[in-house]
Amino acid sequence: MVIKCPVCGEENADDATICKACGAPLEKPSEKKAKSGKILLAIFIFAILVVVAIVVAPIIYKSVPSHNKTDDSDKDGMPDEWELANGLNPNDPSDRTKDADSDGLNNFEEYQMGTDPQNADTDGDGVPDGLDLIPKADAGIRVTITKTRIKDFVDFPRKPTGQIFARIYVDDNLVGEVPSEPAELEIDKIYDVNWSITTNVSDDRSHKVRIELYDKDLIGEEMLDVNGDSPAKDKAGYYLEANYYLGTHIGREQSGSSDGSNDGNSGLQDDKDAMIEYVITTIDMSAL
């Protein structure tokens, strides 16, 4: 048996590995057949897989549920899955504008806001969702005094310190006093403090926050002037008042500062002035 060179055609012995005439590598017939068989087997397996894919794919596709989060059969802007979960008809586009719970929000608005279309007060705070600025949380506010400075002597005879505390009101209702005990502060020194108090409020409107600062001693308490906008000598000319809008999300903040020495009073007309900085924050009362 001989092996014919595929390059030059020279016949070589059956055990030769290279052509004796041109030096080209030689391949035994058995190796050619084995390689050819492997190729044919691979083609056969691939063909079977293609056939299986063509047959099985439609079956798998039909078995997938027809509803997912993005399906919207009636094109009303609300996914079928959400409509079914909330008792609506995914094939009726008219339910987009209906208000089943009579809270002032139609179904599409409830979907956008993430509220319950079958519950007029999703967060259970007593305010209907349509009026609630933050309908998914029972909103409250936190009032925090972050810095203070007592600018004038507050006691007679003069002492280098004062016993200082703040009284906080929201919508003219006393919320409380901070800190729990008056803090002894040096006169004309800036203090970083964290005098904080929280209270629940109605979610449907803005609120009025009032901060009064006092010195307390053995004979009583005296309001200090932190109102830099008014030279008036009555109580309203001494306290700080700020209007606070809850916003539409938990975490909204409003900060400010006020210095009673900026009211224009001086000399014999001067008051016992002080400075405060504060932050008002919208919080979720149910998370406390």
Give an overview of the whole structure.
The chain has about 290 residues and is an alpha+beta fold. It folds into three domains: about 1-60, no CATH class; about 65-120, no CATH class; about 140-285, Immunoglobulin-like. It is about 15% helix and about 30% strand. The chain has three helices and eleven strands, in the order ββαααβββββββββ. Strands 4, 5, 7, 8 and 9 form a five-stranded antiparallel beta sheet that branches. The chain is elongated. The protein starts with a strand and ends with a strand. The relative contact order is 0.11. The mean pLDDT is about 85.
Low-confidence stretches: none
Approximate shape: elongated
Could you tell me the CATH topology label of the largest domain. Answer: Immunoglobulin-like
Number of self-contained structural domains: 3
Instruction: Output the CATH class name of the largest domain.
Output: Mainly Beta
The helix-and-strand class reads: alpha+beta
In round numbers, the mean pLDDT is 86
How can the largest sheet be summarized? Answer: 5 strands, antiparallel
Question: How many DSSP helices?
Answer: 3
Cα Rg: 41 Å
Précis, in short:
This protein has 288 residues and is of the alpha+beta class. The chain has three helices and eleven strands; from the N terminus they run ββαααβββββββββ.
